[in-house]
Amino acid sequence: MNALLELDDLTVRFGGVTALDSVSLTVQEGQICALIGPNGAGKTTAFNTISRLVRPASGTVRFAGQDLLRRHAADLAGLGIARTFQNLALWPGMTVLENVMVGRHARGRAGFASSVFGWPAAREDRDLRARAYAMLDYFEIPDVAHRECTGLPFGTLKRVELARALVGEPRLLLLDEPAGGLTHGDVRELGDILLRLRDEHGITLLLVEHHMQFVMGISDHVVALDFGRNLVSGTPAELRDSPLLVEAYLGTPV
Ligand SMILES: Nc1ncnc2c1ncn2[C@@H]1O[C@H](COP(=O)(O)OP(=O)(O)OP(=O)(O)O)[C@@H](O)[C@H]1O
User: Fold this and answer.
1) Residues 5-44: pLDDT tens digits?
2) Distance 230 CA to ligand 1 centre (A)
3) pTM assigned to the model
4) For ligand 1, atom 11, which residue shows the shortest CA distance?
5) What DSSP line would sit under 157-206, residue for residue?
6) Domains in the chain and their CATH numbers?
């Protein structure tokens, strides 16, 4: 198995607050890895560091052997990294289809020649539209393709966000609280979708999630942080009865 994403000895400070303190974690290619921990543990900071939205004080982040800290946030889609956000980051006034198409633009290859002569861009646009429709079919929401996002049910919008992240064909998908705000039924369906992405499409997933039953049900590897530090990591079976984890969650069953 190959390590696709490696965080090593990562420290992030915001003024006097140390949000991450020498955190290390490895995500193996083709696995679902979950990052868990109580509020304020540093999960979002870790995500934002990988996404190049936050600059660490020290440590390294490597993706497919490359030093990610030498790349800009805008390069990530081209490298094969996509993410979703805790609060849906969709354009409310645009249609579902347009929102999904936006996810591919970062990887579009149309350059100077196409902007001058037009033809390859037009072909690329047709391809992109076809791919976006295919993604909506995959997520079983083709009927809302031409609806504006405003007013659609939350579970549908979550699928739109996933479709947008996947239309760029990422190798690694970062999901920030994907189960947050979903109904029981939607959470079950989301679990099935993520397992299919891993098993049928070979996509590696790293998710931040508070929904323990969901995490333990789908993850291959779980990394727990507490107060910005590595607390414990292992398979769901290894962690289920971890006293450290139970203590960090103040006795909440995991
Ligand atoms: N931009 C910022 N400025 C100052 N402090 C910050 C900033 N972002 C995060 N922090 C602090 O860093 C620590 C880690 O926060 P972070 O949001 O990464 O935790 P989390 O595990 O994602 O929490 P939650 O589960 O509540 O989302 C917290 O003490 C938080 O207050």
Assistant:
1) 999 999 999 999 999 999 999 999 999 999 999 999 999 9
2) 15
3) 0.88
4) 19
5) HHHHHHHHHHTT--SEEEEESTTTT--HHHHHHHHHHHHHHHHHH--EEE
6) 1-80+170-254 (3.40.50.300), 96-168 (no CATH)
